[in-house]
Amino acid sequence: MDLAPHLAKLFIYPIKSLDRVEVGQVSVLKSGALKRDREFAIFDESNHFVNGKRNARVHALRSELDLQADTISLHVQGMNQVTTFHLEKEREVLEGWLSDYFGVPVKLKQDLDMGFPDDTVSPGPTIVSTATLEAIASWYPDLEVEEVRLRFRNNIEISGVPAFWEDQLFAKSDEPVHFQIGDVQLMGMNPCQRCVVITRNSQTGEAYPNFQKTFGAQRQATLPEWAERSRFNHFYRLAINTQLAPTEVGKTISIGDELRMQTSSS
Question: Residue 201, class by beta-carbon neighbours within 10 Å (0-12 exposed, 13-18 middle, 19+ buried)?
Fold first, then answer.
């Protein structure tokens, strides 16, 4: 049966490290990043990110962002009180609330050009397949697919393909793989290196025993034979980091768009 790779889910994370927003379409910035993805980030007084790696309280902070109203509603996991802020008009009040919650003074910074991606060289959307997330869930008796999805925090999820199909979207170092999603041309660059955050429950921060060890062993065992193994100095990698040319600025990626491989950069 012929594969028909298509975009099944699309997520942006307007405030880095906080909860996602599922969208039907999103446009591309000149930098190659998705509009409003990681547009904001929380910083401490040392200008370090406040994220799950540095502050465990991130895990229990629930957020809901209204893209049209430009508001964010926050509450602590397990508690009923919800507080809503306008991201521009009430920025200082929001920063005060976050400072109280995290226990350190923080600032909310904004970058409209690129946002605050982990990979500033390849700030385009991260891509994984639904089948891959399902396969990973099968490695852990207590994990559902949705929890795996929440832990890995990717932008684009592709259906109509087998597990780890996306590993063909990278090649040897400095050799981008050209492909299209709808009318948008992308370049697959490398398998994304993961951090300690994915070893923890996305809602509570509780660590899953031996998560990384199991993941590395299974990832190595299931790596497709045709995948470029030189890109794996270790096997704690999943999903594809991408770049987009400035020519793609303003184009839109939408649910249902087909992913098509290209034979050249043209």
Answer: middle
Domain ranges of the chain: 6-34+118-261, 40-110
41 is written with which tokens?
Answer: 């980030």
- This prediction's pTM: 0.94
- Rounded CA gap, 70 and 262, in Å? 38
* Residue 105 tokens, joined: 């003074």
CA angle 212, 218, 222 (to 5 degrees): 145
Q: Which residues, other chains included, contact 221 with Cβ-Cβ below 8 Å and sequence gap of 6+?
A: none
Q: What CA–CA distance (Å, rounded) separates 127 from 156?
A: 5
Q: What are 37-89's pLDDT values in tens digits?
A: 999 999 999 999 999 888 889 999 999 999 999 999 999 998 999 999 999 99
**What are the E-state strand segments in the chain?**
6-12, 21-22, 25-27, 40-44, 61-66, 71-76, 83-86, 106-110, 127-129, 156-159, 177-181, 184-193, 237-243, 252-254, 259-261
Architecture of the 6-34+118-261 domain: Beta Barrel (2.40)
Structure confidence by residue, pLDDT tens digits, 180-211: 999 999 999 999 999 999 999 999 999 999 99
Cβ count within 10 A of residue 98: 21
Ranges of beta strands (E only) in 28-70 are: 40-44, 61-66
Q: How far apart are CA 114 and CA 263, in angstroms?
A: 28
How far apart CA 21 and CA 12 sit, in angstroms, is: 5
